[in-house]
Amino acid sequence: MNRTKAVLSDVQGVYSGPEGNLWKLIMGEQIHIGGFAQSKILAEKAGISKGEKVLDLCSALGAGLRFLARFYGVRGYGLDATEAMITKAQEATAADGLSSMIEYRKGDVRNIPWQDGFFDVVWGEDAWCYVEDKESMIREAARVLRKGGRIAFSDWVEGPSGWTEETAQRICGFMKFPFIGKREYWEKLLLDSGFEISSSEDCTKHFAGCIDLYISMLTEQLMFDALRIIGWDMDMFQAMGGEMAFMSQQAHAGAFGRCRITAVKK
């Protein structure tokens, strides 16, 4: 697809303002599809173990690292480009009593501020769809991983049945994605950067069900809360609802989806 006009500043605007708070309302602090259960599946597939150093790229509120630190005993490192996310992540990590296990830095995934081979695992959950230069990010991920280190992530992708350019532009424009490819796009990036793929799964069916769940939550339980977040703007609420309904339709048709991939640095 052709790229949208979305750039990093658009994403920073989302997660520094009411849209970010709205996503948190319906998705929780983890702000990714499936929450705790999906994080556990990814961690098990990646073979996460106690004491490993894990880098979360686009770490947002730090809930992924807090999950890994509390339930797997890792040493966590978060990198995010949005100052508001870093501040909120540090506050939440302190409140959870995990500050000694996790540190956060503001930075660019195209130039990761750690040395070669420092990490055991690079981690991401439904966040790399926002990255403009995905190729550089994956090369950097490979650089900061030790030999035999793993990369483990889930992300929103073009679905297995494919989509039209019009659909791509509509969804990516609404979501502030610069572009997203199919699952095979990620596989190629990994192979080109010296990884061996361990698992690659299409999660589109589950993804579609979760979008339906979020729509149901907003319309049947959380409308008052959502309207407060967006300044009681009913027109905006209805417009966003229409875009989410369109995403649901496309997900059920297999045009818009989600994947989960793990790979090992050779």
Structure commentary:
The protein is 48% helix and 21% strand. With 266 residues, the protein is an alpha/beta fold. The chain has a seven-stranded mixed β-sheet, sandwiched between helices. Helix 6 links the parallel strand 4 and strand 5. The protein is globular, with a radius of gyration of 18 Å. 44% of the residues are buried.
What share of the residues lie within helices? 40-55%
Domain module tally? 1
- What is the CATH first-level class name? Alpha Beta
Rg from alpha-carbon coordinates:
18 Å
Task: Encode the helix/strand succession as letters.
Answer: HHHEHEHEEHEHHEHHHE
CATH topology: Rossmann fold
Q: Overall 3D geometry?
A: globular
Please identify which CATH superfamily we are dealing with.
Answer: Vaccinia Virus protein VP39
Task: Give a quick rundown of the structure.
The protein is α/β, with parallel strands linked by helices.
Compile the SSE list and pairings.
Blueprint: H1 8-15, H2 18-27, H3 35-46, E1 53-57, H4 63-72, E2 75-80, H5 83-95, E3 102-106, E4 119-125, H6 134-144, E5 145-158, H7 165-175, H8 183-192, E6 195-202, H9 204-220, H10 223-229, H11 234-252, E7 256-265
Parallel strand pairs: 1-2, 1-4, 2-3, 4-5
Antiparallel strand pairs: 5-7, 6-7
